[in-house]
Amino acid sequence: MAGFHPSHQVKGLRSPDLLLALLMYLAMDPDTNELIGYVVPVFRTSHEFSRGLVEVQEEVKEEGVGQVAMRNLFSRMVTVEKKIELRKKQNSDNLTHPPEFIVRPRGQTVWEGKTVKLHCTVAGWPKPRVAWYKNNVLIDAKTHPDKYTVESNYNMHSLEIKNCDFLDTAQYRASSLNIKGERSCIATVVIKSRGERILEKHPNSVFSPSDGFCEEHGVTFHADIIESFEVAFGREGETLSLGCTVIVYPTIKRYQPDVVWYRDGVALSESKWVHSHWSGDKATLTLVHLNKEDEGLYTLRVNTKSGFQTHSAYVFVRDEEVELEGVPVAPLDVLCHDANKDYVVVTWKQPAVEGESPILGYLIDRCEVGQHHWAQCNETPVKYARFPVTGLIEGKTYTFRVRAINRAGVSRPSRASDPVTAIDPHDRARHRGPSAPFTGMIKFTEEDATVGVVPGEPTDLVVTEATKSYVVLAWTPPTQRGHEGVMYIVEKCIAGTDCWQRANTGIPVKSPRFALFDLAEGNTYSFRVRCFNSAGVSESSAPTAPITVGDMLDLPAAPGPAVATRNTDTSVVVSWGASKDVKHLVGYYIDHSVVGSNVWTPCNNKPVKETRFVCHGLTTGDLCVFRVKAVNAAGYSATSVESEAVVVKAAIAVSDVPIGVHLVEAARDYMVVGWKEPIVTGGADIRGYFVDYRTVKAGFIGQWRELNHKALTTTSYKAENLKENYFYQFQVRAVNMVGISEASLPSMALECKEYTLAKPGVPRCLHVLEVRNTSVVLLWEPPTFDGRSPVNGYYVDLKEAAPGEDWKGANNKATKLKYMKVNGLIAGRSYVFRVRAQNLAGVGEPSTVLGPVLALTMPGTHEIVLDVDDDGVISMIFECSKMAEGSKFVWSKNYKAMTDTSRLTIVTEGSRSRAIFNEPSLEDLGIFSCEVTNTDGVSASYNLTEAGLKHLLDISHDHKFPIIPFKTEMAMDLLEKGRVRFWTQVEKFTSDCKVEYVFNDVIVENGKKYTMNFDKNTGIIEMFMDSLMVTDEGTFTFNLIDGKAKGSTSLVLIGEVTQSVFLPGPHFVDYLDFEVTPECNVLLKATVRFYNRTSSCLFFGLQLCRKDAGMYEVKLKDDRGKDISLFNLTDAGTETLLSWFYSNLLRRSGVLSTEHGIVLYSLVTHHNEELQVTWLQKYIHITASDTYVPSLVNEPTEKDKGKYTINISDGKDGVKRVCDLSGQGRIYRARVVGGLPDVVTIQEGKSLNLTGNVWGDPTPEVSWLKNDKELVSDERYALKFENGKFASITIASVTPTDSGKYALLVKNKYGTEAGDSETMCLQGPWTH
Questions:
Q1: CA distance 467 to 579
Q2: CB atoms within 10 A of CB 595
């Protein structure tokens, strides 16, 4: 394209308009006058139109920029005349027109698998672009070409949806857009499932819409929601998670259901506050940093290609604790509306709690996105929950928050609003086009404004809001305003005058909205608007009708009286009449108060618009009243009339459906069906049942027909006059005082014929009791038909309720019981169960699967407790904390209803039931269980074994015949002057305890002879007698009676015991005898008794010698009598005593090695002048001292070996000891045998060496001393000990400080010796 010149390329163009248009979009170099690129105009338009332009650019990129540019440029040149003619036809008036739907898309309803095509025709100039949306989500046909096809030809547009399925049911919107605006049109498409199609053709078909067959996968999907979330409570600032376990079966590889969460019916999307997660079997929703905006009804919807399942529960969010007592809580739901260049309307909802005084107004804060500074928008609090914020900067993005204020202070701020940008919604978006293909350059220019065009006047001026604080005006911009934009002047005029004043004196208004704040309340004003641009000022708009400054919105009227009805143990249903003639109702707040407390608590913190609300989180048993108030932007209404007081307790309702409809018996023309009563009876007794039946033939069923017109009182019914080989289904309804329940699940199709199979049928009526963390009790009924032989056992199978799990047996050996406790479960997991019956022909088919059952011990679960009361009555006690209206305790034994009422007596009081054993015996052994009706399976059991029964009977006997325990049995004390005390001490008794004092079976009384006392503080019982006579021989007894408890203790005074007690005076129990102590002291002692108190008495002690011989006598005497004891210590007696004496005389003998030699010694216990000591060993005699008798062997040699004898004697008798010095080897004491000089004189600075010769066996230890202080070897002193003989000390350089006394010390186990010490005087160097 080099050298391209427009004058060369456009000569063939005959239209000057086309040439002008072409030249306007060519960029020329002013120096070379050559074409250098395209000029791409920038248009102002909406965001949607900009997105359409971007899509066009994507197409350009796909085809190639150069190719598209050249094609568009030169194809226009060739066909320009044709296109001009076409444009004249399309736009005959040469004016732009907004989009307009000539033909709107029509809603359609089709069957699954079909194709839907939506058509529309759109007019407008410039030619509008059309986009298609599904539920407000843009449809991208390029991303899903197999699902969608979008076409646009000659203003006719279409959307084709292929192979429709259930999820294609939605609202489809066609949106057309050009520079003049946007128009939309909605069509609803409904996709009906195969099941619905069958129902239309065959209304009695067994198919249902929720079980649609999926042709794509060839299966029917079933979804079950288990372990679902319940009503939840959170507090602002906390994090709350909701979760459900979802089971979808059958399992198809790479297929997952669509899981959607809703709040108050609105689908939730991911945000900073909301996070959802789907793991394949568990759906979780996490609410981060709770706020009151998060309160509402949460619903989980699981969509499959066969239908959907939902679960809902309410989430309540309580206010965060206020920082200052009495201030209001934070407002909620801050939203932004009608955003423009410099203006936005902020709305919010009033909080449920105003604080200790009414709310005076609200403060609005704003913050630019990316900043952290909040600026207050209004100086004076506003009463309305709506406020126009002006003064915004065009193009800036803001968030807003609101605070409430009352007399006590300001509340915490609300949660910030979503960001909003201050921009004119009618502005055209600026768009940057692609570069020219031959230059690679892009130029951006603003499209030239229309010069000299004065804008037209604004239209449709209205007052949208009017309050005491402000008035908001809105108008439509002028059609004629050029491309540069316009600004506005707002004028006001007091009604009745013609004086117009400018209202926006400071800053011109850029938006077609304006709020006036400086108006006088009560005055009447009119308003008008002008617009202006650089060309001039427009004419004024038509003025508004006169309006008086004041509140246009009134407070809502008080709601109708509140009516409260019981619902559950923790909730109450409150309904009320709607407020009349209320405008712009925001909702209602409900408060409750416990009667007598005078404290009102909000039941909801987010207003609800319905006139019925379930108040949760109440306390069971409380008596509460309720009231309601309405709220709109103007404020709160007066509260409604309070409801009547209602007790928070489960309400009486229609019962649940009967369960387990099954065949009991069948013949050729009749069938007997049975069922079980509902688990939840609705709080009232079941009064009867109604049975319906219908025929089933070739997959189609007939109408339900009643079998009985009068309610049945039994749980079985015989249906007669049936046809043989026909199939029938049965359903049952229960009746209580409230009404008739829904129909039960239909039974399986049952054939009316006699049973002829060999194996047994399937067990029926499976249900579980006693669900705990690790176990459940599974019960079932036997098959209707046993087969050719009776059923002789059952097998129980279980598996986890999760995809891919296999069945496993709970028992390897068939059980004959019709119940089983299944152990080994894992807490928090869900399980399913089935049972198979067995007879001689084999094992039959499994029963219907029961479950899933969650293995979890519910809070408040109680077990059966065994009790033995004070009367010895044995009973079982079961408590239920979840009693509902009409709940009953049902006791059974071995899981069978107890027909023999003679064994147990049932007593029920409130939530506590007691089963009393009338006569406990072995007949009562077994498993006793108790189930509470009208609850969620509250039950427990107790296995009474033989050992357990025996233990209970022992406890019962002790309770029936209690024995008073004694700390001590009865005892007797003899006191002074012959008095006698009988006493005992009781361990446990009451203040009613009484004592009988008995002597020889005769009750004695307090009197002259007997004195009684019972100290109930200490439990000591006493009986005193002045004296004991021979006539008092017999049995003394204390009998105690304390209620029905008894106790007895006795003391017998008969025979020898009596004689010892009745002696007339003091006497000897043990007569005089002697004892020689280890110190050789001789003791004379005896045992005497005074007044029945026995003691050992030491009369005197002596160190025996022969002159102590003689007769010793001790006398006892008092006024009752005397006694004498003698001890013979004459010659015969002395010899006996001396033999004891001499045996203890010598304590120890031995050998001691000292520095003086070897010492032979013996320790003498006693010595006197009569005792002579002699040492004998080879004629050597050594005189001994009094207590230490040494014999010294100095410098022992071989000749000193041998035995040494010490002899101690009084001339007649004595004792000898021998010391042996004839041991193995030589024994030598450590010695210094020489070598050390007496005195050493040495010159200063010389070296000194002292050496001593050492001797000893074993080799001695050696040490050196200086001035009696031990020396150690170091740099100054060198100490050596060589060959075990030579010890030396060396001082290298002597100084005067080395002068002193040196000694050599040797030591071994036989002794220690210090060598001859030497004094060494050191002198200084000699002088000449």
A1: 22
A2: 12
Note the pLDDT tens digit of each residue in 1006-1015: 888 888 899 8
Per DSSP, helices labelled H in 155-229 are 194-201
Q: What gap in Å lies between CA 198 and CA 701, rounded to an integer?
A: 12
Amino acid identity of 1291? I
What is the spatial distance between Cα 183 and Cα 131, in angstroms, rounded to a whole number? Answer: 11
- The rounded distance, in Å, linking the Cα atoms of 770 and 825 is 13
Give the residue from 454, 386, 396 showing the smallest Cα distance to 421: 396
- The H or E element containing residue 1139 is helix 1131-1143
| CB atoms near residue 1304 (< 10 Å) | 25
Structure tokens at 868: 């033995």
Conformational region of residue 989, where left means phi above 0, alpha means psi within -120 to 50, and beta covers everything else: beta
- Distance between CA atoms of residues 1038 and 836, nearest Å: 70
By the 8 A CB rule, do 848 and 762 touch? yes
pTM to 2 decimals?
0.48
315 backbone dihedrals φ, ψ, rounded to 5°: -115, 125
Cα–Cα distance measured from residue 1291 to residue 1298, given in angstroms and rounded to the nearest whole number: 9
pLDDT tens, residue by residue, 815-840: 999 999 999 999 888 999 999 999 99
Name all contacts of 215-222 with Cβ < 8 Å and 24+ positions apart: 215/112, 215/113, 216/163, 216/165, 216/305, 217/252, 217/255, 217/305, 219/250, 219/252, 219/306, 220/306, 221/248, 221/249, 221/250, 221/257, 221/304, 221/305, 221/306, 221/307, 222/248, 222/249, 222/304, 222/306
d(CA 619, CA 636): 28
Distance CA 430, CA 446 (A): 9
Q: What is the DSSP string of 2-26?
A: TT--HHHHSTT---HHHHHHHHHTE
Interacting residues of 21 by C-beta distance below 8 A, sequence separation 6+: none
String of DSSP letters for 1083-1096: EEEEEEEETTEEEE
Q: What angle do CA 1009, 1012, 1015 make, to 5 degrees?
A: 165
Q: Is the pLDDT of residue 757 over 80?
A: no
CA distance 1214 to 1236: 51
Q: Tell me the C-alpha distance between 77 and 84, whole Å.
A: 11
Please determine, for residue 850, whether its predicted confidence score (pLDDT) is greater than 80. Answer: yes
Q: Would you call the peptide bond into 425 cis, given omega within 30 degrees of 0 as the criterion? A: no
